[in-house]
Amino acid sequence: MTTRKLHPLALAASATLALLALAGCSAPSAGGAAGTAGASSSSTDCTVEGKKVDQVASLRSQVPDSILSTGHLTIATAGDGPPYTYKDGGKLAGLEIDLGRAIGCTLGLPADFKTVAFAGILTGIQGGRYDLGMSTISDTSEREKVMNFVSYQTEGTALVVAKGNPHKVDSIADACGLRVAVTQGGITQQLVEKQNALCSSKMTVTPLPAAADGYLAIRSGRADVFLDTFGTAMFTSENGNGTGDQLEVVKGKRYGVGYQAIALPKNADGTKLTKAIAATVDHLIETGVYGSLYKARGLEQNEMKKVAINDAKKYESSFLDLD
Fold first, then answer.
1. How far apart are CA 280 and CA 321, in angstroms?
2. Average pLDDT, integer, range 256-272
């Protein structure tokens, strides 16, 4: 999975800052220099993907008074990770933006998004500038030492091929003997190297500096297979521009699967808010609002039946599994 490990601490202060730097994610308040105001959902604008989202008093009552008193939820997001958080015509859009709005509507606290460089999100949350972060953040055991995480979906690595799948690639093992592009230094390169060691007919592996180069390699016919984050691959195959062959995502197979999560503080109020957010997302799952967000984007494979809190260990031992 190439989701940022963000997928973004209370040790000694210096250790905390170091961990946060690795995790990424945070921004100052509306008037701060490092963050800019983003989308905000008003208390009367509570329709998400065509579904009306009502306030639920029992869930709102679980929110700390320190948050309720502000009248909104301040959510940090980088706005650069489609289809989850990105700019569309200058406005924030994406699955995480819609989910954040739905959470806010359910709690009667409009979502006030702040666009922040990824590296500042977690530090900003810990510093009290944001209530939570939603920006393709991965839950890891190291991060859980200093932050809380509500994991609301799984995400993984997909196989991208030319339209029509001319080489009939259904799994990473089928890439043996083919030209395979990967993003240099990412989990995709590790997965391909592990598989290639098992291939009798070796892959021709080309590490590329950016994901955009991999998609171009498929379109231009210079590669047969490219590996990228499943959600991003789906979005790019449906919305990306380029010449040459169109793209197709091999469905039914994901590698490097792990959690994508909402990040929150680990202090007393943050932990109380964590439980309230978890219960709220579970409510949105039960009412069908959550599912509508995934169906609209063709990401049903990423859905969870129930959220998890600080559960990174579930996937860490199987992150590089090939089957």
1. 32
2. 96
Question: Between 266 and 301, where is the model more confident?
Answer: 266
Q: Which long-range contacts (CB under 8 A, 24 or more apart) does 27-33 make?
A: 27/76, 27/114, 27/115, 27/116, 27/117, 27/120, 27/121, 27/124, 27/129, 27/130, 28/114, 28/116, 28/124, 28/129, 29/74, 29/114, 29/129, 30/112, 30/114, 32/129
What is the value of pTM for the model shown?
Answer: 0.78
Which candidate, 102, 142, 129, 152, places its Cα nearest to that of 265?
129
Instruction: Tell me how far apart the alpha carbons of residues 46 and 89 are, in angstroms, rounded to a whole number.
Output: 21
Supply the pLDDT for residue 12.
36
How far from 270 is each of 35, 142, 151, 232, CA to CA, in Å?
A: 21, 18, 15, 30
Q: What sections of the chain are H helices per DSSP? A: 13-23, 57-60, 65-68, 95-107, 121-126, 141-144, 187-196, 211-219, 230-239, 268-287, 289-295, 313-316
| Average pLDDT estimate for 63-83 | 95
Helix (H), strand (E) at residue 50: none
pLDDT digit string, tens, across residues 191-237: 999 999 999 999 999 999 988 899 999 999 999 999 999 998 988 88
Q: Quick check: 138 pLDDT over 60?
A: yes
